[in-house]
Design goal:
The protein is an alpha+beta fold. The chain folds into two domains: 103 residues; 134 residues, Nucleoside Triphosphate Pyrophosphohydrolase (Alpha-Beta Complex). It is built from eight helices and 16 strands. Strands 1, 2, 3, 4, 5, 6 and 7 form a seven-stranded mixed β-sheet that branches. Strands 11, 12, 13, 14, 15 and 16 form a six-stranded mixed β-sheet that branches. Helix 7 crosses helix 8. The protein is globular and about 65 Å long. Bound molecules: zinc ion. Zinc ion binds next to loops. The site of zinc ion has 8 residues, from loops.
Amino acid sequence: MGKILKFSGNNIDRLEVQRRDENWISDKLSDPDSKVIVYNKSKVLVKKIFSNITLKFIPLGDIKSKGIEPKLILVGDLSGEIYLATDLNDFADEKVNTILSDGDEFIDCRTAGDELSLSQGGIISQSKSQLEWNRKNGFCGICGGKTNGQRGGQSRKCLTCETEMFPRTDPVMITVVSDGDYCLLGQSKGRLSKLNIYSCLAGFVDQGESIEEAVSREIMEESGIKVKNVNYYASQPWPFPWSLMIGCHAEAETNEINYDEHEMHSVKWFHRDEVLDALKESNDDLSVPGSIAIAHHLIKAWATKEV
Ligand SMILES: [Zn+2]
């Protein structure tokens, strides 16, 4: 097993075999004892005790007793208990609030993934992505007919032309490019929450492209730098809405920056010492992403000469 980053480390058994039995699934989707992971408008329900948060699971019977009939997916089995998930975005907030107890709160999933245990963050990446995929695929891309969830939400089938569709995962390459003691970091447009924050260059892998080809193309497009020796480092599920970040290191073959001003606000070379200070949050001129993001781990591995 390689590096386990936030949003991976999910210990749930996804019940691949049991999912083939639609009668078994419909039993679990109506069992009042099944535990439900609850979302509201893509925020996840947690229990907050002082500053400590854990995912809040509500028995299905308790949700239904408040007059709410949720649309459910089957997440899987954890320690002999069945877990389902729902997003209550079709219900008015006043109605949703009736299922909450003291300390229960809906929070954004990025914060939740950062603060929850690794395994609970992993449950979010599985359930949030799958709920969103089901919600956005209610109609067939071939004939426009209505689709129906199958296998507890792991596939959908068109009721008209019977086309089957399966949840997507979008691969995104993210790379630290180095040239000796310097590394290449950038600021993409529209992400300027802090003016001095720089991160790895990243982009979606195109169709018909290997990871190495995607790295070479994206780095050239975003910075004008030609790269060689692309090496895989680690990956991370990123449930916004369903990406898989593929983290790499690469070496620069050229060093003159010529970045795409349409996509990038700034791209620069930074010395290892500046980056080490930024990782210690003691550099006023440079900040790097926090440890929730694979970018942090890629930058740190290069700066500390782990790779
Ligand atoms: Zn169809």
